[in-house]
Amino acid sequence: MALRSSLERIPNLRPLSAMLFGAPSSSSSSLTWDRKDEYRAAVEVASFDGMGHGLRTTCEANAGDVLLSVPASLWERYSAHTARTKLEKDAPALIERADALDERVGLDLDSGASQHALLALHIVLSFCAGDAYVRSLPRVLHSPTFSRDYADGDYSSLPSAPLADAVKARVDFFTRVHAEMGLANSVPFPLFAWGCGTILSRAVRMKDAPYTLVPLLDFANHNSNPNAELKFSDEDRSFMLVAKAHVGKGEQAFIDYGSNANGGNPLGFLLKYGFENNIKYGDQRQQQWE
Which of 15, 75, 77, 252 matches a 20 to 30 Å C-alpha distance to 135? Predict the structure, then answer.
């Protein structure tokens, strides 16, 4: 099947640009997808000074206690596997284009370009379909790679030349991926970039676990000395947030985003998340966005 006929089964997303990049999602709307009957939690989403939203414990916990368990019924629809399965049915030629990317392009990402690109497109299409969780995700990303402040290609206001060069390299990479997948006529680049930035900053990437967005778990903030860790259960396919030490009631549960966040690049945290060494990039502006 030709690529053009495959893409005809993907809706034209250009009218969604104004909707996606309109008013930022509010803290209240970010919880409208909440389905408490499907997960087990000893944490709640709360606002923390200087960090935006995070996970606050609702009871005292000891090492080994499960603070949050998110079943497959909540996360599976946002996984790389689901993305590929749905797009193989709707746009097989697009899958061929995406797979070819891994041989032609490369960047210091955690896995192949095709996996990121297909999941990003799937998340954008889920937004188009009105998925409540996806529509609750932040419309403006903290990472300078995906900031609209640099949409004109001028990175001179970034605090260092190495950072500006790294941001430009990433923007050029995602621009090339967008073009080589043949999305220009159906998916505007800002929408695709939002999808890429969302999965790179929020999706769970663990050894021997699915690559996926995990609702509620994605509120966990980073700390280099965390009091909790992520685990995946092969038995029931649930993602769990497990206490590593004693955590008092009302304390924030932290995880370590790990070496994967850097990808061998000392600017890795900054490029993906908008902070380095627990210090946020553009802190005042981020508080305004949140």
Answer: 252
